[in-house]
Amino acid sequence: MSPSKNKVLVVGMDGLRFDRLQAVGAPVLAELMASGAYGTSMLPYGEAGTPRTESPGEVVRKTSEPPAGGRVIRSRTDSGPGWSSIATGAWPDRHGVVDNGFTAPQFQKFPDFLTRAKKARPELNTAAFFSWAALAEHGAFGPAVDHRFVLDGYAIGWAEADKQVAAAAERHLAETDPDAVFVYLGDTDEVAHDLGPHCPEYTAALQTQDAYLGRLLDTVRARPSYARECWTVLVTTDHGHVDEGGHGGVAEEERTVFVIANRLGEHLGGRFLAGPRLVDVGPTVLAILGVAVDPAWDLDGAPLEL
Ligand SMILES: [Zn+2]
Asked: Which residue intervals make up region (Disordered) (predicted)?
């Protein structure tokens, strides 16, 4: 029998606070944690004393000067820096996205993990589904990705966008043969900006996204070739939120992020990962796909031990 084919599904949920996730009960994510491995870490950046971003795409003017000495990563705890770090495996001072303005992205030098996988192994089939169109416009997930499904969450609403993104990803997983897939869900962030992360509406948004994730996993498990495949699932977020809603600053609630990893059909022990970082997501995907990280790439992340 030939070895199983390694495949990866990365699901990003915008502005998802891990403490809220643990508190409110999201059955699919809870099961991924119980049979997988997971942990939290703190983003190594945030702009102290500046106004918090109030909507997903809002650019807030920087006013602070970087402190002196050492490697100081001067960036807001916003979506642009977070998703760019997840995509590239490098921190904002390297990939160049320090707020939601995307004024000087370095995605030629630091391409996303799907683009890197495709370049190393052209036979791989890559796909990305998201509703924050800026990620496509600025190339955080670049044009070399085989299949990009891009909606505008501002235009159609984030909840509706999530529904359509999930449906499109579900079809793709059922009907094609992807090797690496990224799916973005954004309503958690939108609701937290409006109402904060402690309201029933945030719980509902999280549970809706949890249900979409469940459908994606069911679809994967129902693939005719599933018995010959080994699927790793990674779930992460780009930043947290302060209690009253909003992010960009240095509070622990804004800087705390998480990574949940699971290998479908295997038990990873429900163990804690020691400080998994956003920049580890890309290298983890590449390692699973058999693509060695070249030191010349100058990445900050390293593959998680799963
Ligand atoms: Zn965000």
From this structure: 48-70
Q: pTM surpassing 0.90? A: yes
Residue 292, pLDDT score: 95
What's the domain range around 136? 8-54+73-297
State the average pLDDT over residues 24-44.
97
Check residue 239 and give its pLDDT.
98
Q: Could you give the number of structural domains in the chain?
A: 1
> Is 66 part of a structural domain of the chain?
no
**Averaged pLDDT for residues 221-231:** 98
Q: In what order do the strands lie in the sheet with 126-130?
A: 147-150, 126-130, 180-185, 5-13, 229-236, 256-263, 37-42, 271-272
Asked if the structure places residue 67 within a domain, the reply is no
Distance (angstroms) between ligand 1 centre and the Cα of 306 equals 26
Confidence of residue 245 (pLDDT cuts 50, 70, 90): very high
Question: 262 CA to middle of ligand 1, Å?
Answer: 23
Judge whether 255 lies within some domain.
yes
Residue 67 has a pLDDT of: 57
**How is residue 264 written in tokens?**
């479908």
Q: Residue 39 is encoded by which pair of tokens?
A: 């942990």
- What is the 154 CA–ligand 1 centroid distance (Å)? 13
Ligand 1 centre from 193 Cα, in Å? Answer: 10
Q: Is residue 59 part of a domain?
A: no
